[in-house]
From TrEMBL:
Lineage: Bacteria, Bacillati, Actinomycetota, Actinomycetes, Micrococcales
Region described as Disordered: spans on this chain: 148-167
Name assigned to this protein: Outer-membrane lipoprotein carrier protein
Residue ranges crossing the lipid bilayer per the database entry: 12-35
Organism of origin: Microbacterium lemovicicum
Keywords: Membrane, Transmembrane, Transmembrane helix
Cited InterPro entries: LolA/LolB/LppX (IPR029046), Sporulation_related (IPR052944), TAT_signal (IPR006311)
PROSITE patterns in alphabetical order: TAT
Keyword NAD in annotation: no
SUPFAM superfamilies hit by this protein: Prokaryotic lipoproteins and lipoprotein localization factors (SSF89392)
Length: 369
C-alpha cells in the first residue's frame, strides 16, 4: 500500500466530519486498559510499538465508543441556553455537552464512508460522511432536522470530508505521534484487553515538571495497530481527566445500508456548501496575527493577540455575568482553571492558554515572557 493511500485511510479511520458540528461522543464510564495476566503479546520496544501503530491501515470497522471528562470545571449548568441569540445558544449548549455531557456513540467506517451515531436519552444525532461523493449529512432526530453538506472543492484539493478529526482514540494518537519529540518519555506498559481484544499499552510522559499533564496512555490493538482507547491524566492525579475508547469493536465492513440516509417528509432539510482548505495550506486572513508562544513543549504558553473589542470592560452585563460564573478574578484579568488546561483573559482583551498552572499564564501576561 502506498504511503499516500495509507495516510488517506488513517484519516478516514478517525471518523471525522468537516461539518462544523460538535458531535464528540461521550459517556460516564472510563475505558481503561485492563491489565490481564492471560494477555501476553509479543514484546515490542517503544520504537517498535510506535512504528506498529503508525503503520496501521484498517479501513473498516464498527463499534461502540464511550468517553468521560472530569476536568475539574466549575458548575456550568447555569450557562445552558443563557444567550438570547438562538444559534449562539445552541453552540454554547453543544460546547457544554462536549466538556461535561455524558453520551454513548456507535461508529461505523468502510473506506471513504463513515457514520457517527450519538445516542441521547430523547433521541439521537447522526453524522453521515460519503467521501466518494464529497457530501455529508447531520441529522437530529429530536428536532427532526437534517443538514446536507457538500464539499465542492474536495477533489480539487485532494481532501475528503473526513479530514478534520474528532477526539477519538486514533485521532488523539495521530496528534500525539505528530508532535512527539525529546520533551516526552515513551514507554510500553502492561499488555491488557480493551473491547475484548488484546492490546499493547503505549505511555507518553512529559519530562517537564511545569505542565499540568501527567501522562497519556493509549491501548494499541495487538493485531491491527489501531488505538482502541486513549486517556489523559493530570499531574498528581490517579484517575484520567479525559478518557475515550471502544467498549465493543468489529473490524469487518458494515453493510452499505448503514451509511445511507434519505430524509422523510417530516424532516426539515437545509443545504450548505462547505469550502475546504487546501490541505496544510489553508489561506489565512491578510490581517491575521500569529499567536505569541512563550516556552516550548508541554509547558509552552500561547498568547492570542487582542482584538480590541474583546476587552473585558466591553462585555455587556449578561456576558460579564456568564464569564464571572466560571472564572476567577486575578491581577489584570480573569482565569479559568481546569485539571489539564488554564486560560487567562486579560482586561485588555488578550487570551493566554497553556497546559500549565494559571499563575504561569498570569506571569506571562504581565511580563511578556
Amino acid at each position: 500500500m502506498s504511503p499516500a493511500r495509507r495516510a488517506a485511510r488513517r484519516r478516514a479511520l478517525t471518523w471525522t466530519a468537516a461539518v462544523g458540528v460538535p458531535v464528540l461522543v461521550g459517556a460516564a464510564i472510563l475505558v481503561p486498559v485492563a491489565a490481564s495476566g492471560a494477555t501476553d503479546l509479543p514484546d515490542k520496544t517503544p520504537a517498535e510499538l510506535l512504528a506498529f501503530a503508525a503503520a496501521s491501515d484498517v479501513t473498516a470497522l464498527s463499534g461502540t465508543v464511550e468517553q468521560s471528562s472530569d476536568l475539574g470545571l466549575p458548575d456550568l449548568g447555569s450557562l445552558a441556553g443563557s444567550t438570547d441569540d438562538g444559534a449562539s445558544a445552541a453552540d454554547a449548549d453543544d460546547l457544554l455537552e462536549l466538556v461535561t455531557g455524558s453520551h454513548t456513540a456507535k461508529v461505523y467506517l468502510s473506506g471513504d464512508s463513515a457514520r457517527v451515531q450519538v445516542l441521547d436519552q430523547l433521541g439521537e444525532r447522526n453524522v453521515y460522511v460519503d467521501g466518494a461523493s464529497d457530501q455529508a449529512w447531520f441529522v437530529d432526530s429530536e428536532t427532526r432536522t437534517a443538514t446536507q453538506l457538500s464539499f465542492p472543492d474536495a477533489r480539487q484539493h485532494d481532501t475528503a470530508p473526513t479530514d478534520t478529526t474528532l477526539p477519538t482514540p486514533e485521532a488523539m494518537l495521530d496528534q500525539a505521534l505528530a508532535k512527539l519529540d525529546e520533551t516526552t518519555d515513551v514507554t510500553v506498559g502492561a499488555d491488557g484487553r480493551v473491547a475484548g481484544r488484546d492490546v499493547y499499552e503505549l505511555v507518553l510522559t512529559p519530562r517537564s515538571q511545569d505542565t499540568l499533564v501527567g501522562e497519556l496512555r493509549f491501548a494499541i490493538d495487538g493485531e491491527t495497530g489501531v488505538a482502541l482507547s486513549a486517556s489523559v491524566t493530570a499531574r498528581g492525579a490517579s484517575d484520567p481527566a479525559f478518557s475515550v475508547g471502544f467498549t465493543q469493536v468489529d473490524f469487518s465492513a458494515p453493510d452499505a445500508s448503514v451509511f445511507a440516509f434519505t430524509p422523510g417528509d417530516d424532516v426539515q432539510v437545509t443545504q450548505k456548501d462547505i469550502a475546504l482548505p487546501d490541505g496544510d495550506h489553508a489561506k489565512k486572513p491578510a490581517d491575521a496575527t500569529a499567536p505569541t508562544v512563550f516556552g516550548t513543549g508541554w509547558s509552552a504558553v500561547a498568547e492570542l493577540p487582542s482584538r480590541g473589542s474583546g476587552a473585558l470592560a466591553d462585555l455587556d452585563p449578561s456576558q460579564s455575568a456568564m464569564l464571572n460564573s466560571v472564572t476567577t478574578a486575578v491581577d489584570g484579568g480573569r482565569v479559568l482553571q481546569t485539571s489539564l488546561l488554564s486560560v487567562v483573559l486579560t482586561d485588555d482583551g488578550r487570551v493566554l492558554v497553556g497546559a500549565v498552572p494559571a499563575d504561569r499564564l498570569v506571569e506571562a501576561a504581565q511580563t511578556g515572557s
